[in-house]
């Protein structure tokens, strides 16, 4: 199924007058500040977030998985799904592949299909947290950190192959997330595990094309429950520094212990020019991979405040690789992703509204009350007319969920793909 601009323009007609009233009102209220509304809309339209190839079907937990009908059964169908989300939102112009879950069969055909939907290939993800069929060595006791040289070599070779695959598609970054660690005290020697990991990463890094970046993802626990080799941003940064200039830390919002100040981590990494990538999701307890903004939207806004500050003040930090890393257990995956994109845009737009000069002045005057007022005034502004306007100007839907349902996208996908479908990947 494809959605064309005319269909969306027709659907938008119903909401257009209402939208215009809200947009004009917001533009009018913002005209008193020095925020130019057209610049804001342009920034929102520019902001593109990659959709991971593993998030288009129903996810699951270790207790079960409940399929969603009409799920994509191939990489081609996954790209088509992202194309649908992108048509509606105009903010999902990239895909992030997980290898070997989504290895292309025909590179040219996949590239053509992606181009047809205006989708770029973002960072590629390696997978050494599962054993694959016919694999010689097992990752049961770790991959890049394993005490066995043969296992480490196999894992290194896999990462190099992932880079090769990504290179053929136009990707420019490799994301490494390791499940390596231990479940019981005494199982691992922490120092040996870290040293092996560093050396393995260096070997992968040195093999990458000169214009590639390496993103090192951290996570405190799971699947190992006693220790994880790359447990936090400090370890990731240390490893990135050990690799070289083009190695960076990747922050996944779900990969922190409760109440961690993620915005501070983001800020410090950008100061050091070492924040490379970002995985969006939300959580109540751990790595829950829930819809972005569904649990802690204010925290997301504070994180975006630091991201915006960093993007404006830290030229030493490269452009970031943005990706949604969520799992969809009960909602339609496409609707869920649309909601995540909306939450990301909302937090970004609100952060852009913060009067940075006034904030700096209030900070210097130690006027804590005003500091809070400045942040919360921005947070309390309903920025949705800006996001809608950005979509409208680029041929998207004023209300993507409404359009998705009006066009009966899921019903069409079920007609095309069937009722009992299982997406490849997670
Ligand atoms: C690990 C993780 C990592 C993986 C993805 C499937 O929890 O966030 O990014 O690649 O989930
Ligand atoms: Mn992640
Ligand atoms: Mn995760």
From TrEMBL:
In its keyword annotation, does this UniProt entry include Manganese? yes
Molecular-function annotations in GO: isomerase activity; metal ion binding
- What is the species of this protein? Leeuwenhoekiella nanhaiensis
UniProt keyword Metal-binding present: yes
Q: Which InterPro entries match?
A: L-rhamnose_isomerase, Xyl_isomerase-like_sf
What is the name attached to this protein's record?
Sugar isomerase
What keywords would UniProt list here?
Answer: Isomerase, Manganese, Metal-binding
Tell me the domain of life: Bacteria
